[in-house]
Write a structure and sequence with these properties.
alpha/beta, Spore Coat Polysaccharide Biosynthesis Protein SpsA, Chain A, 2 domains, seven-stranded mixed beta sheet, 10 helices, 7 strands, 47% helix, binds uridine-5'-diphosphate, binds magnesium ion
């Protein structure tokens, strides 16, 4: 059985050789297992591609692809899945924050019959409190907002069976939030615990702005809740408007003019009511936009875990039965 290890790398010249040494050490120690390492260079501007080229020339089991420019971690990850040949694929960061020593345990679980074995972090050394907190809030929020049940404190370090890899490859969406997608596809999933180490060397490639973009991708790809919020806002506004309208009418008709300004009631009522109506309308349009978005993503409707044979042939229109001239 072939195991592919995919390593996305972006400007990792400071760590890449050490990463390679530790990875090969762990992989060589595993019995009854064929393996390959696939490095995906995500348009690095330092010596990373050069070093990876050397490693590849020296070792047969190492493959190396170089993207034409920097596309971002999630895309590099997807490219790795496209090029990996293995029966199972492990994706691991290049900076040694995810310890390669966990891989044998993942393979063990995979042999037990699990399709996804994700690394769950028990503790994260060398991360700022800010990053820890934002990560925590983010995952809880995402679970609330979407119907994904994503495990908390899980990164992209995981092993995936060929079935899952093919499922992910069948999802052509462009904004790729892979850990969400992996949860979404289903199959048998299980966690292994590990301690997330600090970065071995070099700097994080995820500054705050990129993190916010990442979070937005996640929420927007998996949830219509922000769109639906508008409808609820509209309903709330209309509810308030009716109270306001009542108030204005009572003032206008049951109190003497010293209590109100001429023309005030009509403007007040119109503004309140119309803004509620507008919000609801935007929300309804949003609902359709959300559905269009869902359709455009072209995700497969389902995946089959077992028993693929016997699917009937696609029916192509009714042209066979339709007599000529009838249409
Ligand atoms: N990475 C990448 N493309 C990018 C940014 C990062 O391939 O545009 C890789 C990077 O080399 C590393 C992994 O993605 O292997 C995770 O990045 P990083 O360690 O900087 O993120 P953090 O661990 O700080 O979230
Ligand atoms: Mg890192």
């Amino acid at each position: 059985m072939l195991l592919s290890v995919v390593v996305p790398c972006y400007n990792e010249e400071a760590v890449i050789l050490e990463t390679h040494r530790r990875l090969s050490e762990v992989l060589s120690g595993m019995k009854n297992l064929d393996w390959e390492i696939l490095y995906v260079d995500d348009g690095s501007s330092d010596r990373t591609p050069e070093l990876l080229g050397q490693v590849q020339r020296a070792e047969e089991r190492v493959r190396f692809i170089r993207l034409s420019r920097n596309f971002g971690h999630q895309i590099a990850f997807s490219a790795g899945l496209d090029y990996a040949h293995g029966e199972a694929v492990v994706v691991i960061d290049a900076d040694l924050q995810d310890p390669p020593e966990v891989i044998p345990e993942m393979v063990e679980r995979w042999r037990d019959g699990y399709h996804v074995v994700y690394g769950a972090r028990t503790c994260r050394e060398g991360e700022t409190t800010f990053k820890l907190w934002t990560a925590k809030i983010f995952y809880r929020l995402l679970n609330r907002l979407s119907n994904l049940k994503m495990p908390v404190d899980v990164g992209d370090f995981r092993l995936m069976d060929r079935k899952v890899v093919d499922a992910l490859r069948a999802m052509p969406e462009r904004d790729r939030f892979l850990r969400g997608m992996v949860s979404w596809v289903g199959f048998r999933q299980i966690a292994v615990l590990y301690k997330r180490a600090p970065r071995f060397a070099g700097e994080s490639k995820y500054p705050l702005l990129k993190m916010i973009r990442f979070a937005a991708d996640a929420v927007i790809s998996f949830s219509f809740v922000p769109l639906r919020l508008v409808i609820w806002l509209g309903v709330g506004a209309i509810g308030l408007a009716f109270l306001g309208i009542l108030y204005a009418i009572v003032l206008r008709f049951f109190f003497d003019p010293s209590h109100w300004v001429r023309g005030w009631a009509s403007i007040f009522v119109a503004v309140l009511f119309m803004s509620g109506v507008q919000l609801i309308s935007i929300g309804i349009i949003g609902e359709y936009v959300g559905r269009i978005y869902g359709e455009v993503k072209h995700r497969p409707l389902y995946f089959v875990q077992e028993g693929k044979e016997g699917k009937s042939k696609k029916v192509k229109g009714k042209s066979v039965d339709t007599p000529k001239g009838v249409n």
